[in-house]
Amino acid sequence: SPPPPSPARRVKIRSPASPSGGVFIKEIVLGHGTVGAIASSSAGLAREMVAGSGIENARCGVGYGPGVGAFTGEILARLPKGARYFAIELSPRLADRFAARFPEARLYLGSASDAPELCRQEGMNVHNCVDIVFSGLPFASFPPELQATIIERTVQILRPGGMFITFAYAGVSV
């Protein structure tokens, strides 16, 4: 079995009994593959994802699969005044929770593969318009074609030197 992560990088996830945990389990059952986690990501993971990302200097950030917004508070707190941020969530149930929690954030119901079109709707040039993309998507559960499409479209919208930041759960058997 693989070694555990180093203590400095270890983060805890919330228990499925947490307030958002129930919505994730319901989404797994009813969501037809729109969710890849049983609970919202922890505040510790959110801090790790955003720390050192350079979001403080970004002009535009995008969130893929924000769920209920586990990373969004950290992102919005560090985003410079006048910068843009929007998120794309596929699950209507999670999008409702996100919108209630972050009414100031722009949220689109759709797929991360729609990112170039959503940049266009935001009035931005589709190419090289985003500084940073934070992803909570369960890439390992996606078909290879969808993985490739999302990555290609992400590269399309990222500025040169832009960042794509994601995470994955490892060593979990169901």
Structural class: alpha/beta
Tally of strands: 5
- Strand fraction: 15-25%
Taking pLDDT < 50 over at least 5 consecutive residues as the criterion, the unreliable ranges are 1-21, 23-39
Radius of gyration, in Å, reads 16 Å
Characterize the overall form.
globular
Major β-sheet profile = 5 strands, parallel
Provide the succession of SSEs: HHEHEHEHEHE
Mean pLDDT: 78
Q: How many helical stretches? A: 6
Distance between the termini: 16 Å
Strand order of the largest sheet: 3-2-1-4-5
Helix content estimate: 25-40%
Structure description:
This protein is of the alpha/beta class. Helix content is 32%, strand content 17%. It has a five-stranded parallel β-sheet. It is globular and about 35 Å long.
Layout of helices and strands:
Elements: H1 21-30, H2 43-50, E1 60-64, H3 72-78, E2 84-89, H4 92-101, E3 106-109, H5 115-121, E4 130-135, H6 144-157, E5 158-166
Brief descriptors of the model:
6 helices, disordered N terminus, globular, five-stranded parallel β-sheet
Short description, anyone?
With 174 residues, the protein is of the alpha/beta class. The protein is built from 6 helices and 5 strands.
